[in-house]
Design a protein that fits this description.
Number of helices: 11
Radius of gyration: 19 Å
CATH class: Alpha Beta
CATH architecture: 4-Layer Sandwich
Bound molecules: zinc ion
Order of helices and strands: HHHEEEEHEHEHHEEEEEHEHHH
Strand content: 15-25%
Helix content: 25-40%
CATH topology: Metallo-beta-lactamase, Chain A
CATH superfamily: Ribonuclease Z/Hydroxyacylglutathione hydrolase-like
């Protein structure tokens, strides 16, 4: 890598920060009642956040593959402020992204960051964890996350380094959970309980949801995608079984892993359920008709293309994964 290209990359990342400030007006206008000045403070420090309910802030990731411009800032990250402590929910795709999020938190509250919760093992959700080591936070995840993440650690790290560049990658490492959720766990932020639930295999085999009891806000991680085409690294059958279970759970609003900072519930589920139902149905038909995998990937679900962003980057792999799973039914 030449010094010239390194300079370019640094300029690009500074520009990304400035762009955060430029959209400040929109963020401030939809911000809640926690404090009218907080979104301004957050944007000035890097990560633009929106207060979606009292004491709950969400930073919206971009709909893109990880690259040297976004540095892995492609998933939504959130934090919840209680009377005694702050919980962070997902940390972004690199230590750099995690540091920007941490500065945004510190600009809004001086309460200690005691918990870092990961919704699942994917790099765009966990590789910012290192930024919170100094807080001596507890790192909490589904009991199966450590196994999945350990097995993929080397690949996740080397691929991220390639995607964002050596300088931006600095400090990025895997931090495994220090506390795990077997079925469910409640943590208390001081007058504010978060209920964590370990889900059965769907997007991955280690999906964890977080429910803020004070505002009835449900954080779904990548069990909910909006705008950004969903991706599959668990079980399409499992996901389609989990959707009605999630729908039966009451919430005032939900936070997707990719998409708007907050969405109406359960309406937010409809496009996702339609997408996976269609793929499951058409892949089953393709298998019954004796189609090959490449014939199936060329046709199945193409009617969904105009409805989703980054479709071409992920859809064929989704059909491939569904085909491999449903072939053995
Ligand atoms: Zn994911």
């Amino acid at each position: 890598m030449s010094p010239h290209s390194r300079d370019h990359r640094l300029k690009v990342s500074r520009r990304s920060l400035l762009r955060g400030s430029a959209t400040l007006g929109a963020a401030a206008s939809i911000a809640g009642r926690f404090s009218s000045s907080t979104p301004a403070v957050a944007a000035a420090n890097g990560a633009e956040t929106t207060e979606i309910a009292p004491g709950i802030f969400v930073h919206r990731g971009q709909h893109a593959l990880i690259d040297a411009e976004n540095l892995g800032d492609i998933a939504n990250t959130s934090f919840v402020i209680g009377k005694d402590a702050v919980a962070v929910i997902d940390t972004g795709g690199s230590a750099r992204v995690g540091q920007v999020l941490r500065r945004a938190i510190q600009a809004i509250t001086d309460r200690p960051i005691r918990y870092v919760i990961n919704t699942h093992m994917h790099p765009d959700h966990v590789l910012g964890n290192a930024a919170f080591e100094a807080d001596k936070a507890e790192f909490i995840a589904h009991h199966k996350m450590a196994r999945g993440l350990s097995a993929r650690a080397e690949r996740f790290l080397s691929r991220t380094q390639e995607q964002i560049g050596d300088d931006a990658f600095e400090g990025t490492k895997i931090i495994l959970p220090t506390r795990v959720v077997d079925t469910s766990l409640t943590i208390d932020l001081g007058g504010r309980a978060l209920n964590l639930v370990a889900r059965s295999t769907a997007h991955t085999d280690n999906d964890l949801t977080i429910f803020d009891t004070q505002t009835e806000t449900l954080f779904l991680g990548d069990l909910l995608f909006s705008e950004h085409v969903p991706t599959l690294d668990g079980s399409i059958v499992g996901w389609l079984k989990l959707i009605p279970i999630l729908r039966s759970e009451a919430a005032q609003r939900v936070v997707p892993g990719h998409g708007p900072v907050a969405m109406a519930w359960p309406d937010a589920l409809a496009p996702l359920e339609f997408y996976w139902s269609l793929i499951a149905r058409d892949v089953r038909t393709a298998i019954q008709d004796g189609m090959t995998l490449s014939e199936a990937t060329a046709t199945v679900g193409q009617s969904e293309r105009s409805k989703w962003q980054v479709f071409d980057e992920h859809h064929v792999r989704n059909v491939t994964a569904a085909f491999a799973e449903l072939e053995w039914e």
